[in-house]
Amino acid sequence: MRSVFYYTIIATLIVCNYFSQVTIHRVEKTSRNSADLRKSLRDTISACKATVGISVIELETGDTLSVNNHIDFAMQSVYKFPLALQILQEVQEGRLSLNRQILLDEEILKRYSWSPLKKQNPGSTIKMSIDSLLMYMISYSDNLACDKLFQVVGGPGTTNDFIHKTGFPQIQIKYTEAEIGADIKRAYLNTSRPSDMTALLKAFYERKIINEAGTRHLLHYMTNDSTSHKRMRGKLPQDVAVAHKTGTANIGDEFINACNDVGIIAMPGGKHLAVAVFVMNGTMTYADAERLIATVTRQIYDFYK
């Protein structure tokens, strides 16, 4: 298998055109009224039988807006983003190497029935670099890769400590994917409020958590992903770049525990938005939850463009 890093070098050149390091500055206030957007968003989510949280930060101005920000939402695979930040910070500080080979033995492989990593790399054991595991975790939202990287750093508790020391004590990461799979109630203990996630995205994008190389590397995996494009990207123009991470839990025919999408949108004219949309405990179909996130994102996009 050709090195993941090879592809990253090529594609990062494109990604960085959309997500070059942002310069924070105040701009002249426009006539737009955030109260209009807040009302529009509340009208949209009021028709849904779900708890919905929304946050947006315009990165160039620092302007913010949130809805239902007092609620701790189940992140699900959104917490793979903080884990990726931890991995890349440890690489930056010399404690890990992206080229380090990790053995996935038969015992861990058999725990995960669904795994793009397993499907694309058949065998009773697999040896793979930390970089490849990072790619599968972010671009494919692979649970096996996530839990193996948790093992590499010392477990969810170390990631929880990392994110708190980084300045985000409200974000809670307590359980692995396998542990949540054994008891769905644990999903509600890996949590974030919407504004904490957009603040984390902002700090990441401003290169305050990891360096330029690490930021570009992760932006590439978040932009060139194979997870659902029917949420944040669903109703945006096709030429709009989005670096994002989805999260999903216990999708049934008429009930969802969580359907989320968080990320950075490259707006026309060079502006950028950090956006988080969390949908929790919804009496709705999976398709309806994705359409809701797409609609909310489009309302935000139209307001700020």
Describe this structure in words.
- This protein has a single domain (4-304), classed as Beta-lactamase (3-Layer(aba) Sandwich), CATH 3.40.710.10.
- Residues 1-11 and 23-31 have low confidence and may be disordered.
- The N and C termini lie far apart (41 Å).
- 46% of the residues are buried.
- It is globular.
- It has helices at residues 4-18, 34-46, 80-92, 106-109, 116-120, 130-139, 143-153, 156-165, 177-182, 194-205, 212-223, 286-304, and strands spanning 51-58, 64-67, 73-74, 101-104, 126-129, 191-192, 242-249, 256-266, 272-282.
- It is of the alpha+beta class and 305 residues long.
- A 5-stranded antiparallel β-sheet has the order 2-1-9-8-7, sandwiched between helices. The chain has a two-stranded antiparallel ribbon with strand order 3-6. A two-stranded antiparallel ribbon has the order 4-5.
- The longest helix is centred in the last third of the chain and has 19 residues, at 286-304.
